[in-house]
Design a protein that fits this description.
The protein is mainly α. The chain folds into three domains: 3-127, HUPs (Rossmann fold, 3-Layer(aba) Sandwich); 129-162 and 205-288, Serine Threonine Protein Phosphatase 5, Tetratricopeptide repeat (Alpha Horseshoe); 299-468, Orthogonal Bundle (DNA Cyclobutane Dipyrimidine Photolyase, subunit A, domain 3). The protein contains 20 helices and five strands. The protein has helices at 18-25, 48-67, 79-90, 105-118, 148-158, 198-201, 206-218, 224-227, 240-244, 250-259, 266-288, 311-318, 325-337, 342-355, 360-370, 376-387, 402-409, 414-419, 438-444, 456-468; strands at residues 3-8, 29-36, 73-76, 94-98, 122-126. Helix 4 links the parallel strand 4 (94-98) and strand 5. Helix 5 crosses helix 11 (266-288). The longest helix is centred in the middle third of the chain and has 23 residues, at 266-288. It is globular. Bound molecules: flavin-adenine dinucleotide.
Amino acid sequence: MPYALVWFRHDLRLDDNPALRAALDEGYTPVPVYIRAPQEEGDWAPGGASDAWLHRSLEGLDADLRARGSRLVLRRGASAAVLDALLEETGAEAVFWNRKYEPATQPRDAALKKALRERGLRVESFNGSLLFEPWDLATQQGGPYKVFTPFWRSALAQWRAPATWDAPGTLPAFDAAWQGESLDAWCLTPALGWDAGFWETWTPGEAGAREAVEVFIDGALNGYRADRDRPDRVGTSKLSPHLHFGEIASWRITAELERARTAANSADMDGYIRELGWREFAYHLLHHFPHTPTQNLNPRFAHFDWAKVDPDVLAAWQRGRTGVPIVDAGLRELWATGYMHNRVRMIVASYLVKHLRYHWSHGARWFWDTLVDADLANNTLGWQWVAGTGADAAPYFRVFNPVTQAEKFDPKGQYIARWVPELADVPLPLRFAPWQKPDVLAHVAPDYPRRPLVDLAEGREGALTAYRKTGD
Ligand SMILES: Cc1cc2nc3c(=O)[nH]c(=O)nc-3n(C[C@H](O)[C@H](O)[C@H](O)COP(=O)(O)OP(=O)(O)OC[C@H]3O[C@@H](n4cnc5c(N)ncnc54)[C@H](O)[C@@H]3O)c2cc1C
């Protein structure tokens, strides 16, 4: 059988993998390869938490391939050069991959496809990630959507449930001489072991992803619409890192959900699928507005009066020492687990861009480095949404009050107590705003900041004043 390189990227799975399937369907022996080329990701080389996840995910993929008779070849370097070398070594006649959509790698892949085809090779790329590719949906005028509701309405109108298929039971072996590098030599796992706590929460890899779907369907799906905003409960699917690394296809999730649909869970299921729609919207926006990972989508903010960054203040925000308990809880959850609940992401982001008036990119970069689900499309959408600078964003003048947010979404203060344990003995409602009783705070939690980095009313006023200066 002739050989085909199957280039794994954000599709670290064997089920529902269109590139792998194409290679097999066309009669090739697949040579699975993963190329480490962070230098090709532009400003967005994967952060430390993502790398720690990647290590485990690649380990899992290799084990799954070996169980079927194949294996994963790991190489480092420029993607074009590595593919060239492998084509030479193996004599492969084809290259298959599933598409990535980041502004730095999309043109690279397009150029590679063209160059390889010009050399007479069979090269094909596929959608391995999205329900709709970023160019599938367009407004009546033919342009991109900037508002979610019509985007999603159009998506639902065109919805055709894609087929799912299971991983092949066996895979053909290939020459043992075609060796890769050792994963350990890539040093993706942090030497200091700061990721130790991650793995109490997460199981990277395809099996972990499939398990997470099952756990969700049997549990948090029932009540999702009400509980998805409650950081004190297990109310969401926690599938985001699995989706980012392509350990599960989004259409496999919707198919599993549909199989489990009942009258009782139907509305929660639709609510959940709508959230997957936000991921689709994020990819649509990133494709059409590739400058947005660093620049505002809304030009009104071109001359916004962002505050000058004080590194100590930024560090206090990053490490959860702002003096605002719900904000600190979120940032400490992030540090400990590589994840933060969506509602709390909004609260901590709002505090940074509004109360501190720091440009959202400072927060986006921190999230990029620390989240296991760091995803350029979703992170950009999330930060620009909170900052009010993006598409269909929360208006800048709507400033979240972190105290009322905590009272509403963590009413018993349990999430705060979990992640800021020094406040666990501060009684409610003081736990939401402990600076109001400095003597109690000094007594119960002497190491916790006495007052917030910025007074909440002053921070809010500063944000609104800066916003008014942007006109209309
Ligand atoms: C400031 C900020 C930054 C963010 N950065 C990221 C990021 O880097 N990576 C990331 O995956 N998500 C990001 N999000 C979106 C959201 O917080 C996470 O997707 C969600 O918390 C993941 O948890 P879950 O899988 O349990 O979500 P669930 O509620 O179970 O949702 C299921 C899936 O839908 C998608 N989804 C849900 N909400 C959103 C959303 N608002 N935008 C886009 N997709 C969504 C995710 O893929 C998620 O896994 C960010 C949100 C904010 C406000």
